[in-house]
Design a protein that fits this description.
By secondary structure, the chain is of the alpha/beta class. Helices cover 33% and strands 29% of the residues. The strands form four sheets. Strands 7-6-15-16-17-14-18 form a seven-stranded mixed beta sheet, sandwiched between helices. α1 packs parallel to α7 and α2 packs parallel to α7. It is globular and about 60 Å long. It starts with a strand and ends with a helix. Bound molecules: flavin-adenine dinucleotide. The site of flavin-adenine dinucleotide has 38 residues, from α1, β3, β14, β18 and α7.
């Protein structure tokens, strides 16, 4: 079996993986980026909302102005609704973009600095005693191994690396989304009526304009593990589309959002970033900024710290506590829900 060698093996060429590859490679390290799908054609399901901290991190990491190099779309307004009624309007400046443009940018930068990309490869097993990861090449069905010094899980909400190293699958919730021509320039969050019948504990539909196109989606979560959660979301998505006058015969895609506890490292040689670490806002589902923050902070720990694990974990928890904008949004979201539950409106 062919065996490749590298200092850093990053599993998942999504946003977090591509950012970390770029940072490590630029600092002179050997990096292999292993991706399950076709790296150029894969298209992550996402609302494409980029909050301030993500834009700032982008600027810091790439030294480029996101407004100049990304197809950012400034929204006219942002509103939250219940049953068609507006409950809270928000004047914050919000930018969106088609997610593929951001992922393409990050991957291109990683490749430009010399990251070795192995795409369409499936991770089969990991031997942490001998620092070997075994893969199946999905193109020619051959098997190969990569010897590493450090392995990093950036393989998203359903992280295979996490399952292999921890022995159990991460906890995720399903989301549904469609793409449609833009019908309005206003971002809308519409809470699920099922919150009141306790069929879901939280959940909402979204309409997010990204320029010429918009995405419409739905997410719902239930602590009692409702079996019909996906069906509830599907129905709500359809109702929301008809409320907005959007064609409904568009194919619906599904994706996962992580909701379990944060896991940042398994041992001194295995770390997790982005969704694979469970780093996603449990209220809003936003995770782009976490992908930036975690990739950057792990990079800083990997190249500079004596105790990488402790440093990385400390840095992340400090960063999360300092995220005031994020916390302000969260409390606004929860206030809206509380208002809804009382049955009143602003
Ligand atoms: C429907 C939806 C809408 C969202 N909207 C927003 C939003 O508007 N704003 C926001 O901030 N966040 C949003 N998020 C969350 C955000 O998309 C994620 O938090 C973010 O993509 C996390 O980046 P990541 O690099 O960790 O994971 P990902 O972007 O998921 O990348 C993981 C990569 O790993 C690859 N992979 C998976 N399994 C394997 C494997 N076994 N081996 C190798 N590679 C593998 C995948 O193909 C992918 O390329 C949304 C999420 C969903 C599902």
């Amino acid at each position: 079996m062919k065996v490749f060698d590298t200092q850093y093996l990053i599993i998942g060429a999504g946003l977090a993986g591509s950012i970390l590859s770029f940072l490590l490679r630029r600092s002179g390290s050997e990096v292999i980026l292993a991706e399950l799908l076709d790296a150029k054609t894969k298209d992550k399901l996402c609302g494409g909302v980029m909050i301030d901290s993500a834009l700032q991190s982008f600027k810091k990491i790439y030294g480029e102005n996101p407004q100049q190099v990304l197809p950012l779309h400034k929204l006219k307004s942002f509103c939250q609704r219940f049953a068609g009624k507006e409950i809270l309007a928000n004047n914050t400046e919000i930018f969106t973009l088609p997610r593929k443009s951001l992922d393409n940018f990050a991957l291109e930068r990683a490749l430009e600095v010399g990251t070795r990309l192995f795409d369409r490869v499936a991770l089969k097993s990991v031997d942490m005693n001998n620092f070997l990861a075994y893969f199946l090449d999905l193109r020619d069905k051959t098997q190969f191994a990569i010897r590493f010094q450090f392995i990093i899980g950036a393989d998203g909400a359903s992280s295979k690396l996490r399952t292999l190293l921890m022995g159990k699958r991460p906890i995720i919730i399903p989301t549904l989304q469609i793409q449609t021509p833009c019908v309005s320039d206003e971002l809308i969050f519409a809470y699920l009526p099922e919150i009141f019948s306790s069929q879901v504990d939280w959940g909402y539909c979204w309409y997010i304009p990204q320029g010429k196109i918009a995405v419409v989606g739905c997410v719902g979560s239930s602590f009692s593990k409702q079996k019909n959660l996906v069906q509830i979301c599907r129905n709500n998505l359809k109702n929301f589309c008809s409320e907005l006058g959007i064609e409904q015969n568009i194919s619906i895609r599904g994706a996962a959002i992580p909701i379990d506890k944060i896991l940042l490292s398994c041992n001194e040689n295995a770390f997790f970033i982005g969704d694979a670490a469970g780093l996603n806002d449990t209220v809003t589902g936003g995770g782009i900024h976490y992908a930036f923050i975690s990739a950057n902070l792990l990079f800083e720990a990997l190249i500079g710290a004596e105790n990488i694990r402790l440093t990385y974990e400390k840095k992340i928890f400090n960063a999360i506590q300092l995220k005031t904008t994020q916390q302000a949004r969260k409390s606004q979201f929860l206030t809206s829900l509380a208002i809804l539950k009382k049955g009143s409106e602003i």
